[in-house]
Amino acid sequence: MAKYGLQRGIRGSEARHTTTAQYYRDLKRQTGELEANVRQLQTAQQQAERQLDEVRKEIKSEKLEAAKTEAKTALVAKVGSLLGSGKLKADNRTLQSEVAARDENIELLQRQMQRQQEEHSRQLMELQAKHRREMADKEAEHQKEVSFLKSVIQKAKKWFPLFQELVYMEKFCLKVGFNEKQTATLISGKPLFYEGELYSEEHKRKFKTERAGFQVVKDPKDKSKLALAINRQLIGEWFKEQFNKLFSSIRRTVAPHRKDKGLGL
Length: 265
Prior knowledge:
Elements: H1 20-59, H2 68-83, H3 86-159, H4 163-176, H5 180-187, E1 192-200, E2 205-219, E3 222-230, E4 233-234, H6 235-264
Antiparallel strand pairs: 1-2, 2-3, 3-4
Helix pairs in contact: 1-2, 4-5
């Protein structure tokens, strides 16, 4: 142990080895005592400063003129001894170091927060730019598809003259009251048997029909157009007949009442 600058204990000595735990406990105790002394010195300093202020006020009074020099000298000496204490100066330097370290940590945290905010803003701007590019690409793709579909429709109209009429007829059949499956059957040119109510856009009402045969045919008056027929009769004419029958029925019902009213007079 000699080569490390250490010596063994003296045989028979009452000195005992201090454990690490005991060492830290003693160190903590001494630190506590030091802090208590610092607080005591700070309290004494504050009391001395207050006393100095009071003495300064009292010095102005004529009653204390005689004791002014002695009290002032003693108090100033006491305050000077406190402020000039090496221990207090060391504690003040320690406190100043801790405050400086704290301020440095706060400044470091502020710089880190600033960098995080800048990084977040940068990422947000990148995401927004990416989203705008994606939306622009989708819009361009959509416009491309729309243009393609328009060109297909134009070609279909050119190649199939009745294509546009079939589109109109599909809407008409759905509005009259047929479901999608029944409409698809009619648009394909096949006959359809139906029983139920049919709606007339012209007369703004529904008309009931027994089981009848329906089919999409070329308009007899204009072969370039299509029409819906019910039992080989154009549905527009059929609606008109049904409305006239309803009107005549209502008129026959109302006429006797008017006649009876006239006889009563």
